[in-house]
Specification:
Number of strands of chain A: 18
Largest sheet of chain A: 6 strands, parallel
Largest interface: A-B, 118 and 118 residues
Helix content of chain A: 25-40%
Structural class of chain A: alpha/beta
Oligomer: homodimer
């Protein structure tokens, strides 16, 4: 059929099963066209073509409600709910986000980007329906990879008690981003191997009725299964076995690489552009491999995102039992690290800034209160990282720096990062987090100290007068540029690398009062609760003026880097001008 | 035997099983003596007498390692690991904390107070052992109530993959603090009813070998079961069925009341002191009951602690399906609330400040990004609340206020709390958190506004000059006292109730610059990342001085309220004196 004629799921509900099957082929082809030209989540969407079509075919969306976990697999959902042009017309590719987005469509219920939340959110919709006397079906769709997150368990455990219509579709493609890890996955495999008849059955153990669909890419089988549970009066799990990357040979063959990707050549599957640039993941992996070789008690932990720290299949195999993937389970990663450290091992947990949020209590209770020397490397902690609203990397300073006992280090470049990493892995006095300095690797060619045990000791890199810039981590370069501009205007600015985000260097700050009138802080993070505010409070009753630069508290979405920088005055010339204004006022 | 002669588990390992049984009786009697005179966790400890004795009898502690979940059930553990006097000698009752504490004993591995962490922490110990070539047993003891927390699931899921010695003892007394909630609990009941032979089996579904002990208060049965798994070469769950409150009739009969309690009369079980004081829990429950009656879409949520919001068995029954206990699962509580709000219901989630930390990512992603009008009431958010290091209620302002979109309200008294609660439950524009003002109920007898939709609009309660106090929430009274002292010294201070912790009233603050020189902030929370720092940053480049009062960033433990207040200068006279010093400098 003419895909562009699909305005809503109504248009596909009149099709026969044979036509529906043909439609799936056409949707997949169109999807591949956009994916290869634009990039995105490849494998998850290819695997979900039939299930998505069958869901909308059977259920009366938008009255019936579907909540997609992570929602990175909703491209076909968008194609058949009024947004087809964003997939068939290159001029409109960026009209839609890569996740569900209520501002786009009434078929999208939540803005979602983190894993393991859909069952909980859908449980709330179902409970609201029951309180209000509604009759609609409520469906949560969750992938097997997401089941490793604690929130998914909590959501399932509660959902089973609803006692009313609640349909959980488990999209089992036997993969997380990389392979799955956890005892649960053996029992999922056993269910697949027994056509759903085996025991133990995780879903039944949580109180669910249970159905199994062996051919999760067979639209007719799915339609039958969904029809069977439509209007059901109690909680049920439909476990469907899909194939990640279905219908595209390179994606079927290498499911990890094709989970998410940049534009690629459709015939070969090869990426159109190969980056030759070094990457903090690779740098980290190379360094950790060396440390692991030297010390068999060094353990490297990931929560389902090994690629972030440069651990591809080769590195994982080489690291052997010193590499631990806990699945998408950040709480476990942090608490496990604490146990490892207490047991005398040397854990490093590498994690994306936005995902570390899932483990605040573990950072506080399991680690900081116990003062276990875990090391946490925090990646994409910058406004120049991921710009989807669900993946912003700006909130980690406010999150970590205000936990007592945590040492939060902010290296300014590759060399300082590795120096700090070495110290952190060697020492046993503190839990240490290291903010990997941005996305683009900066090398300074300098030698950095090997010892950071003098906690909160800032580095006075250039001593001047009147104005001092405290430029943290990835914004150190911004500070250097401001210094150059101020020098050109005849000022003699002081430049400080604070190195520590979690406290103030009281002696250094006090000494500045002798010959400085203004301190400017620069941080690549949200201003509220951040580093600069500690400096502002420090000087609260002093004549010293303080001006904080960073990002204002907001949820920006798919923003343009330059615009967000401009809106927040994060430009060397603007900052230099504002400094001059303050000094001459 | 003479209990005071027990210096270490070695002393009990030489006993026969009959003597061991007698010892359990003596330990229970001594325990009841302290519990009745001193208060504490009653039911959990009475139920664990035999299991604790059996664990130390069989395993070679401290070489073998036991991690207790929540660790509120470790009184007998402390009695037989060198701390017997803290239970038999009233002069030494306070020598020990109510939780495991490594500073007390090498038998205590972690400082623990939140639920659901033990399996994860023990998993780390086991993995460290494996990396270092150790041979010791690693045991995690976790209660059935704690299994509802996502971290426990994540810990079990990972632990199953260790492939080496890992022993999880599930202490199933069929109770959380109140009754259990969640689909899992039906299957645990089924296991108890089938003597462990039934399916589905949750633990097997996560990959564990499994044993069941029907008589979890029979020390001989436990010794046999533990001996059977000592030295085991793979992960195993020992599911033991114990009785909460075992051996004390009143505690067996009313397991919820006797979970934790103040001193009581041993013969009757009646509390020695009955508080006649009103309590924010009761006030909240009474008010919510009214709202629920008026609107059937109002839903009240707890995460396993209904008593905190005044919902005893009577209120729970009356509220019916409008009352939701998700189990100890704060992530679920927050995400569920978001789903409820999205579905048009009106959710209120009442939670202890320290436990809300477990749901930071849900506050940010599931709620704030989706801007769902959930209402969260935060209890014991004060330095005058719980003073165990694991239960500090001071970190919520830094946690919540820095999440974009969250409105965090700080009422100063009962009347303002209820006014804000009414507004929050009515409006649909924002997620709202309300900081219940301290522990002691303050009534002002004033009428407060019914509308708080003018976000970040502070209330200028007394207009003066030179010095302005911004006194937030439970510290408003402190601000009033400082104002009185300053007036007595001839000053005309301004007093502001900020009402909002999550932002600045820029116009009001700007206006103060005309005739004020100093702004003082008072907040009942940690200074770092808190409310005062927002004010300090606001005035950073202004001549206005800012002095922030609050609690310095540290993990205080079992502190004396007055001492902590003194250390932080939180005394009206001290503050007034410091203000005068600044003004006259």
């Amino acid at each position: 059929m003419d895909l562009d004629s699909i305005k809503s799921p109504e248009d596909i509900r009149k099709l026969s099963l044979t036509e529906l099957d043909e439609l799936c082929g056409e949707l997949r082809e169109a999807l591949l066209g956009k994916l290869s030209a634009h990039g995105g989540h490849i494998g998850p969407n290819l695997g979900m073509v039939e299930a998505t079509v069958a869901l909308h075919y059977v259920f009366d969306t938008p009255d019936d409600k579907i909540v997609f976990d992570v929602s990175h697999q909703t491209y076909v959902h968008k194609m058949i709910t009024g947004r087809i042009k964003a997939f068939t017309d290159p001029d409109h590719f960026d009209d839609v986000t890569g996740f569900t987005e209520p501002r786009e469509s009434e078929y999208d219920l939540f803005t979602i980007g983190h894993t393991s939340t859909a069952v909980s959110l859908a449980g709330g919709l179902a409970k609201a329906r029951d309180l209000k006397g509604g009759k609609e079906n409520v469906v949560a769709l969750v992938g097997d990879g997401s089941l490793s997150g604690g929130e998914a368990f909590e959501g399932l455990d509660f959902g089973a008690t609803l006692g009313t219509n609640f349909i959980v579709v488990v999209n089992d493609n036997d993969m997380s981003i990389a392979e799955n890890h956890g005892g649960l996955y053996d029992s999922l495999r056993h269910l697949r191997e027994t056509d759903g008849h085996g025991e133990p059955n995780y879903f039944k153990s949580l109180g669910y009725d249970y159905r199994y669909v062996a051919y999760g890419n067979d639209v007719a089988a799915l339609v039958e299964a969904f029809k069977d549970v439509k209007g059901i009066d109690h909680p049920v799990v439909i476990h469907i076995n899909t194939q990640k990357g279905k219908g595209y040979a390179p994606a079927e063959a290498d499911r990890e690489t094709f989970h998410f990707g940049a534009p690629f050549d459709l015939s070969s599957g090869n990426p159109l552009r190969i980056s030759e640039e070094p990457d903090y993941g690779d740098i980290t992996a190379t360094h950790l491999m060396k440390l692991m070789k030297e010390d068999s008690s060094v353990a490297v932990i990931t929560a389902g995102t090994p690629g972030v720290i440069g651990f591809g299949p080769v590195q994982r195999q080489l690291a052997g039992r010193q590499f631990i993937d806990v699945g998408i389970a950040e709480q476990e990663a942090v608490a496990l690290a604490s146990g490892l450290a207490k047991g005398g091992a040397k854990p490093f947990f590498g994690v994306v800034s936005s995902f570390l949020q899932r483990a605040y209590d573990q950072l506080s209770q399991d680690v900081a209160i116990n003062n276990t020397p875990v090391v946490i490397g925090i990646f994409y902690a910058t406004m120049y990282g991921m710009n989807d609203v669900t993946h912003l990397g700006w909130f980690d300073i406010a999150l970590i720096s205000n936990i007592p006992g945590f040492v939060y280090l902010a290296p300014t470049c590759k060399e300082e990062y590795l120096a700090m990493l070495d110290w952190a892995m060697k020492q046993t006095d503190h839990p240490v987090a290291i903010r990997v300095p941005g996305v683009k690797v900066i090398e300074r060619g300098e030698i950095f100290p090997t010892d950071y045990s003098d906690i909160n000791c800032y580095s006075l890199d250039q001593k001047g007068r009147d104005i001092a810039l405290i430029a943290a981590g990835s914004f150190y370069s911004l500070g250097e540029k401001v210094v150059e501009l101020l020098k050109a205007r005849g000022y003699e600015p002081t430049l400080i690398n604070p190195r520590f985000l979690s406290g103030t260097d009281d002696e250094l700050l006090r000494n500045l009062e002798a010959d400085h009138r203004l301190v400017v802080t620069l941080e690549d993070g949200v201003l509220d609760g951040g580093f600069g505010e500690k400096i502002a409070r420090f000087y609260g009753t002093s004549p010293m003026k303080v001006k904080c630069y960073g990002i204002r508290k907001e949820f920006a979405d798919r923003y343009d880097y330059a615009s967000l920088a401009r809106e927040n005055h994060l430009d060397p010339a603007v900052i230099a001008g504002e400094i001059e204004n303050i000094l001459t006022k």
